[in-house]
Amino acid sequence: MSVLTSPKARVWGGFALAAVLLFGVAPAVLSDFRLGLLGKFLCFAIVAAGIGLAWGRGGMLTLGQGVFFGIGAYAMAMHLKVADAQLKGQDVPDFMQIAGATELPGYWRPFASPAVAIVAILVLPALVAFLLGIGVFKRRVKGAYFAILSQALAAAFAILLVGQQTIGGSNGLNRFRTFFGFTLADPANKRMLFFIAAAVLLLSVALIRQLMNSRYGELLVAVRDQEERVRFLGYDPATIKLVAYVVAAFLAGIAGALFVPIVGIISPADVGIVPSLAFLIGVAIGGRATLLGPVLGAIGVAWAQSAFSESFPSGWIYAQGLLFVVVVGFFPAGIAGLVTLVRRRRSPSAAAEPGVAASAAADVPEPVKVP
Description:
Layout: H1 7-29, H2 32-57, H3 65-87, H4 94-98, H5 114-137, H6 144-162, E1 173-174, E2 178-179, E3 182-183, H7 187-212, H8 215-232, H9 237-263, E4 265-266, H10 273-286, H11 293-311, H12 316-330, H13 334-346, H14 348-351, H15 354-362
Antiparallel strand pairs: 1-4, 2-3
InterPro entries: ABC_transp_permease, ABC_transptr_urea_perm_UrtC, LivM-like
Region (Disordered): 349-371
Organism: Rhodococcus olei
């Protein structure tokens, strides 16, 4: 095997190609508006990368990622609103002034500090996922029950936000003017946000790849396929699941924080059941158990929604549902799994192994055999 065709070289080559496309080609060929849209899609892709680990490798159908996305987003939004008010010499943000408030609520005050806001973005989603996961996985809640519980959590979170007028209620938080001292109206700063999102996405994919290819990744797949045997061998499946769940929440929180300055608004409509399902649809279509499938699926579905809605505003939801049904019904491994299946069937060596094609068609990757 030559150095250029080794697995390590292909990995580095893939990251190099992605970096060229994101940092060189995209800014050169896309307008500022389209580049902003792509930045928004990259935020969704970061969430999808975490879902790929938790659902694709761990078998946890996470229907509530909008919660962790929303925690990170609201933490960032609260800091930006306080910072904007301070620049104007005001004590409270503009929407609070309209409501007649004269001082910040107590839980808003820490977010005046950029350091506190960044720590909250990084820690709070992971902490909430950790506490929830401890209660769920230690009680061996899994399958449909876990999916329903996570979806109910997303619904409850959105309802809670609607009732909190001190964080914008149903209107959410918007009209941000600065981002850590940089003016958001400046096109150069908007491009900077895109580059930050692109860098975070590449780092997220690298993190997920490292986890998937490690001993932990093998244990995660083993827990998905043979949980009782893993427990019999002395491992705690709850802890293994918990790590994947927390990592997925951590990435979702960062994605939400980047979403706020890129898009310019965060509201309960962005964190409830519908957005959580949209994250999942992109992952399923792309190929949930592969490394790049969730990322490309999330970007592709978001792009299709934007393009389709421009021509047929009311028809996208039907097209999205049809696409999801077709993929789940006929290509359960997603588009990435279909590509893998075609490639393996064309290979004589793979055709001689009937188990390989069956595994690719059913659900990638092959189960880990626990002795």
